[in-house]
Amino acid sequence: MSNIIQSSAIESALIQGDLSKLSTNERLSYFKSVCESLGLNHLTRPFEFITLNGKLTLYAKRDATDQLRKVHGVSITITARERIDDLYVVTAKARDKSGREDESTGAVNIAGLKGDNLANAFLKSETKAKRRVTLSICGLGMLDETEVSDIPEVKEATPAQEPAKKPEQIQQYTIKFGKFKGMAIEQVDPYELSSYMAYIEDSAKQKGKAITGGVAEFMSRANDYLNSIEVKDDSDGVPF
C-alpha cells in the first residue's frame, strides 16, 4: 500500500510540476527513479534541487551530461564561435550513436571583461553549448547548472524543503543502528552514506514496508547532511 501511495504522490507532483509536494523519502525515490530511467549513477548526484518560479524542480550537473554522453554515445562538435555585440556565442552540434543530430547555442555577456575573466567567459559559453545540446538530444527539457547560475534570485533547495539547519546541528546526530551504529553522520563518507540510504530504501521497497521510526529519522538527518556539504567540482576550469 505504501508503494501505491508513493507512486500516486509522485504522479501528482509531476502533473503539477512542483516536487515540493513530495515527502523527503518520496523525493529521494523520485531522484533515484529519474537517474535509473536515464542510466545514470544516482550516487554521483547528477542532479540538484532548486526552487524556480515558486516550484521545486531538478537541474542537471556536469555529472549528468558526462554520463548521458557515454550512455547514448553522443559526440559533440563546435560549429561556430562568434561575438554579437556584447555577447560571445558558441554553437555546438551533437550526434548520438543512432545518427540523430541536434544543435544548441551557449551565450555569455562579455561586456567590459578582460584577461582571465574574458577567457573564463569564453570557456563558459562553450560549456553551456555542449551541455545544452547534450540534454536536448537526450530528450531532457531541464536546466543545466551553467544556466542556473545566470538566473537572478534562483534558490537552491534541499530535497526536504525544510528550514536550513546549521551543519554543526546536523553533524551532532549519532546513527543508532546498522553498519554505522554509534558514528556521527559527519564521520561517514558522503558517498557511503548515500549508498547506505539507497540500500535501506531498496530493502523497504522489496519488503513492501514504509520507512518509519528511527530509520525514517536517520534518512531525514542523512539527507539534510548531504545537502549541507559542498560537493567539489574537479573540472579545473576546463569545459569537458
- The pLDDT mean sits at 80
Supply Rg. Answer: 20 Å
The parts where pLDDT drops under 50 for at least 5 residues are 1-5, 158-168, 230-240
Query: Helix amount, in percent?
Result: 40-55%
Q: Tell me which oligomeric state these chains represent.
A: single chain
Shape field? elongated
Estimate the strand proportion: 15-25%
Strand arrangement within the widest β-sheet reads: 2-1-6
Biggest β-sheet: count, sense, barrel? 3 strands, antiparallel
Description of the structure:
The longest helix is centred in the middle third of the chain and has 23 residues. Helices cover 44% and strands 18% of the residues. With 240 residues, it is α+β, with helices and mostly antiparallel strands. The chain has two domains: 137 residues, no CATH class; 63 residues, Double Stranded RNA Binding Domain (2-Layer Sandwich), CATH 3.30.160.
Short description:
The chain is an alpha+beta fold and 240 residues long. The protein has helices at 2-16, 24-38, 62-72, 115-137, 145-148, 167-171, 190-207, 213-226; strands at 47-52, 55-60, 75-84, 87-95, 101-109, 155-156.
Topology of helices and strands:
Elements: H1 2-16, H2 24-38, E1 47-52, E2 55-60, H3 62-72, E3 75-84, E4 87-95, E5 101-109, H4 115-137, H5 145-148, E6 155-156, H6 167-171, H7 190-207, H8 213-226
Helix pairs in contact: 7-8
Entry keywords:
alpha+beta, Double Stranded RNA Binding Domain, 2 domains, three-stranded antiparallel sheet, disordered N terminus
